[in-house]
Specification:
The chain is α/β, with parallel strands linked by helices. The protein has ten helices and 17 strands. Strands 3, 4, 5, 8, 9, 16 and 17 form a seven-stranded mixed sheet that branches. Strands 12-11-10-13-14-15 form a six-stranded parallel sheet, with helices on both faces.
Length: about 325
């Protein structure tokens, strides 16, 4: 069968032909119809991830076919008993445990969740990792309510779009930031109230004036712009951080945090309980994931390049089975 496997930080990932995996105790062999690309996969291929294992099959998102039924793959491995944080043995499918960028894989049946009936297979494959990350940071951590005004930074990525869709589904007001006016316009077409280019001078002041400030802010970048982003917060706001693509946060005034009584929440992936709640939410509100594009496994490098350049709006999906 075909699989996209990590080689090393110096040797590019490649599609290899390998034998079908053999199920272990309690595991089952499933077909993976579609899988979804995440920035995590890009970081792994660049060596920017811990516990790298050469020869590992990449991929955390997928739709599995088992007993002629379709299931979402839960990418969590050993979250642990505490709902507040993951345990020491926690990992995510795709490194070091083999992931979904293959025609078949072995899983325990408790990693399978019934696919919501309103979704196509590529749409369903877009959900697991990004949907889980978005649900936890937005609801489990920041406790978004319908009366809140929300700002989502860096709209266009899979998690950011899910955050926006989930918030709109409960009736919250959503604003976005991006370096692309086209992506802001796409977000507005989906229901966002407005947005600003964070590449513009004084964008944060303009955004706060236009919106009235935010009760919840969700960010994946950090970096030098975080202090500007957090300046748009209303008193008592909740700020969720699920990534740090722009590096260390600088020039953040503690006075801004304590005087406004702000709450800053770190969030990584989510527990199995979060995953179950997220899938129910998607089903209840008939959320339709945004699929940017679909690639064959053999064309994975073009898919990786598209994500690495930030050209996508929504999830990049693989068609695993020819």
């Amino acid at each position: 069968m075909r699989a996209i496997q990590y080689q090393s930080a110096e040797v590019p990932a490649k599609v290899v032909n390998i034998d079908h995996p053999t199920p272990g105790d309690g595991e089952v062999l499933v077909d993976i119809k579609n899988s979804g690309l995440n920035h995590r996969d890009i970081f792994i291929t660049k060596g920017l991830y811990p516990n790298l294992r050469p020869g590992s099959t990449l991929g955390s998102d997928g739709v599995a076919v088992w007993k002629e039924r379709h299931f979402l793959v839960n990418p969590n491995v050993s979250w642990g008993p505490n709902q507040q944080f993951q345990g020491e043995n926690y990992s995510i499918l795709g490194m070091p445990k083999d992931g979904t960028f293959a025609e078949k894989m072995v899983l325990h049946p408790d990693r399978l969740a019934e696919k919501p009936a309103h979704l196509t297979l590529p749409q369903a494959a877009a959900i697991p990792l990004a949907g889980l990350t978005a649900y936890r940071v937005l609801f489990s951590r920041c406790q978004l309510a319908p009366e809140d005004r929300l700002c989502v930074s860096g709209i266009g990525g899979g998690v950011a779009i899910f955050v926006m869709q989930f918030a709109l589904a409960i009736g919250a007001e959503v604003w976005v930031t991006s370096s692309s006016q086209e992506k802001i316009d796409q977000a507005k077409d989906m229901g966002a109230a407005g947005g600003c280019l964070y590449t513009d001078d004084s964008w944060h002041k303009i955004l706060k004036k236009k919106s009235g400030g935010f009760d919840v802010i969700i960010d994946s970048a950090g970096g030098t712009g975080f202090s500007q982003l957090i300046s748009t917060a209303n008193s008592g706001a909740r700020v969720g951080i699920y990534g740090g693509s722009l590096g260390k946060i600088q020039d953040l005034s503690p006075q801004l945090i304590f005087w406004k009584q702000l709450n800053i929440f770190g969030s990584t992936m989510g527990s199995d309980r979060d995953f179950e709640a997220m899938v129910r939410f998607v089903d209840q509100h008939k959320i339709i994931p945004v699929v940017d594009s679909v690639y064959d496994l053999s064309d994975f490098q073009n898919a990786f390049d598209r994500m690495d350049k930030g050209q996508q709006f929504g999830k990049i999906i693989f068609d695993n089975l020819k």
